[in-house]
Amino acid sequence: MANFRTHAVCGGLWGTAAGMAAFLTGWCSPVQSATLGVLGVIGAALPDIDSRNARPRQILLGVLGVGIPVLLAGNVLPRDFTNEALFCWMIAADAVIRYGADFILSRCSRHRGAFHSIPAALMAGEATFLAFPDSLLQVRFAFALAVTGGYLSHLLLDELCSWNFIGASEKKSAGSAFTWKTESAGGTLALYLAAAILGGLCFRFS
Fold first, then answer.
1. Residue 147: which of 58, 35, 3, 20 has the closest Cα?
2. Residue 114's closest CA among 185, 59, 64?
3. Are 32 and 139 in contact (CB under 8 A)?
4. How many angstroms separate the CA atoms of 103 and 142, rounded?
5. Of all helices (H) and strands (E), which one includes residue 170?
6. How many angstroms separate the CA atoms of 154 and 156, rounded?
7. 8 or 51, which is more confident?
8. 3-state SS class at 28
9. CA angle (185 as vertex; 180, 191 as ends), nearest 5
10. Any residues with CB less than 8 A from the CB of 200 and at least 6 apart, and which?
C-alpha cells in the first residue's frame, strides 16, 4: 500500500494537469485552476479518512474542518451575520467536523472498507459539485472531476501495490481497493443508493 505522501503527490500531479488543461481551454480562471490542484490532493487523500493511522485522518479532518464551514458560510448563513457570530460558527463547525467525524469513523468504519471503492470516488465528486453552487457549471464539473480523479488515483495505487509484479504474485489485500462493492450486500446497496441520491441532487441543482 502506498504511503500518504505518495498519494498526495500523485493527486497533486493529477490536479495540476487538470488545472492546466482547464485554464488552457478557457474552462477555469487562474485561481480556479490552482484550486483544481488543491482538490486533486484532497481527493487523493480522502480514501484514507478511514485509516487507523491517526496522522492521515487528522490532516484530512483538519482540512475539511476549515474548508467545509467556509464553503457553507456563503450559502447557509444570513447576510447580516456579524464577525463575532461568524467566528463562533467557524470554531463550532470545525470542532464538530474534526472531532465528531473522528469519533464516528473510529466506530463505524474500517480501513479498506466502503471508502476504498469506486462508488465512494463518485460520491466524493458529487459532493464537490454540490459544494460550489455559485460557480459556473463547467467549473463545478472540473472541481468534481479533480476530486474524483485524485480519489481514483489513490485506489489504483493501493491496488498496484497489492501485486508483486516481479514474482507475478498477489498479496492478501489484492482486489480490496479498486472495487465496485463492499463486503456485504447491504453495504453495497447503501453505497449505490447514496451515490444515486447525490447524483439526483447534482442534477437538481445544476
1. 35
2. 185
3. yes
4. 32
5. strand 169-170
6. 5
7. 8
8. coil
9. 55
10. none
Give SS3 for 163: strand
Please report, as a single letter, which amino acid is at residue 149: G
Helix, strand, coil percent values for the chain (each to nearest 5)? 70, 0, 25
> What is the percentage of the chain residues whose pLDDT exceeds 70?
87
Beta bridge partners of residue 170, listed in sequence order: 163
pTM metric for this prediction: 0.84
Q: Which grid coordinates belong to 168?
A: 507475478
CA distance 194 to 125: 13
**DSSP one-letter code for 189:** H
Helices assigned H by DSSP within 54-170? 54-76, 83-95, 101-108, 118-131, 137-160
- Name the helix (H) or strand (E) containing 42: helix 30-45
- Read off the pLDDT band of 165 (50, 70, 90): very low
Amino acid residing at 131? A
SS3 label, residue 164: strand
What is the rounded distance in angstroms from the CA atom of residue 146 to the CA atom of residue 37?
8
Under 8 Å CB-to-CB from 121, ≥6 apart: which residues?
A: 43, 47, 148, 151, 152, 155
CA distance 204 to 198: 10
The confidence score (pLDDT) of residue 109 equals 67
Measured CA to CA, the distance from residue 54 to residue 32 in angstroms comes to 31
Nearest-angstrom CA–CA distance, 27 and 166: 43
> What residue type is 89 in one-letter code?
W
